[in-house]
Design goal:
five-stranded parallel beta sheet, alpha/beta, 7 strands
């Protein structure tokens, strides 16, 4: 599921030396209020909820048809992966799973807007995004299975471990993006953020640092209306979360997060903005989490069924499928082929996750300290003795 080439919005011509100078030297010129930091008054939308195209926008040109077809394919596979992962929790194969069903346009659109050489900083909810990026789904689910590591090689995949503490990835993304620009590398970092994370100090510290040093990072807020059970109205009085970028001198935009075409168009422009040396960009996507916060949550305690049903009618996959059928990009055979591919993907994941992993209990003590402490050595030997005693008892 590796990303295809996606046409980017033309970037402002610059040189690596200019990017380096801009990212390492604080400007003494006051910000120009006319720079266009404010997001649109209403979320950018290119398709209505029924999948009918809206008037074209010069500032957000529609992505090529081939990119939209690939976006549809990955969204269908991503949703099937998400449903399968949710089922694995019920079978005891996963310790916990935070579903992203309903947020497919955001999860997949973000990956298609990036290059393979760019970096991704996910939260715990971005499993769908990671498999869309091409990571092995079993490796993606390793952490949620209860292992001590994230399952994949972050450096090799340019994908940070999924982050459970809220907003800490915002600082990491700013630091990496700054470092890449300082070394004159053409790299953009994209940090996923939930609406609740925008209330954390790390979010503000990260975006402020990125703005001051013009770090090429895109902060992508998926506003799914709830921070676990806390509704957006109890989190902020701002007209939208996108306005949080203005105070830091960061260009911002809000987009209909259930409009796949608009999401890809807005993020493509945001990535191009950062890559051109213009500093960070904040995007807020208005979307909805269809499932509970995790499999351990009871969402009926804080939201009603009518609200969920209303958002079900804004399904991003159905929206894009309708549009692509009308354009002749998809037909019945193509839709069936993608559905079959998704089922095959889920079956392979199910079979591999049903295989019982071989775990060495002594590995629990690895990588705790560079040099094990005396207490850790003592504990490891206690476990070793218990395992040996159990093995002898089993052989008796």
């Amino acid at each position: 599921m590796g990303p295809p080439h996606v046409q980017e919005v033309p970037a402002v011509t610059t040189t690596p030396q200019a990017v380096r100078r801009a990212s390492t030297r604080r400007s003494t010129t006051p910000p120009d209020p006319a720079r266009g930091l404010l997001p649109a008054a209403e979320p950018v939308r290119l398709l209505d909820p029924a999948g009918t195209p809206l008037p074209a926008r010069a500032d957000y040109p529609e992505p090529p048809a081939a990119a939209l077809a690939e976006l549809y394919r990955r969204m269908v596979i991503g949703r099937r992966f998400d449903v399968q992962a949710t089922a694995l929790t019920k079978q005891g194969r996963l310790a916990v799973y935070p579903s992203s069903r309903g947020q497919e346009a955001c999860q997949v659109g973000a990956m298609l807007a990036l290059r393979d050489t760019d970096w991704v900083f996910p939260t715990y909810r971005e499993s769908m995004a990671l498999v869309s990026r091409g990571l092995d789904p079993v490796e993606v689910l390793t952490l949620l299975r209860g292992d001590w590591h994230c399952g994949y090689d972050p450096a090799a995949r340019r994908t940070a471990p999924q982050c459970t503490p809220l907003a800490t990835q915002c600082v990491h993304a700013a630091g990496l993006a700054y470092g890449e620009a300082y070394q004159e590398r053409d790299t953009v970092a994209l940090a996923f953020i939930g609406d609740g994370a925008t209330s954390e100090g790390d979010f503000h510290e990260g975006i402020n640092f990125a703005a001051v040093f013009k770090a090429p990072v895109v902060y992508f807020v998926q506003n799914n209306r709830y921070a676990i059970s806390v509704p957006l109205s109890r989190q902020t009085a701002a007209p939208s979360l996108a306005y949080k970028g203005v105070g830091y001198g960061v260009s911002s935009e809000q987009v209909d997060g259930n409009d796949p075409v608009a999401v890809l168009a807005v993020l493509t422009r945001a990535v191009a903005h950062a890559r051109a040396g213009n500093g960070p960009f904040l995007v807020e996507a208005h979307t909805y989490r269809m499932e509970p916060h995790t499999n351990a949550d009871d969402a009926t305690r804080y939201r009603d069924g009518a609200e969920v049903d209303a958002w079900r009618d804004r399904d991003p996959i159905a929206r894009l499928e309708t549009y692509l059928r009308e354009r002749g990009v998809l037909d019945e055979a193509a839709v069936a082929a993608v559905a079959a591919e998704a089922e095959e993907y889920a079956a392979d994941l199910r079979a591999r996750m049903n295989a019982q992993p071989t775990v060495d209990p002594l590995s629990l003590f690895d990588h705790v300290y560079a040099e094990p402490t005396p207490q850790l050595v003592e504990q490891r030997e206690q476990v070793r003795a218990e395992l040996a005693a159990a093995e002898q008892e089993g052989d008796a």
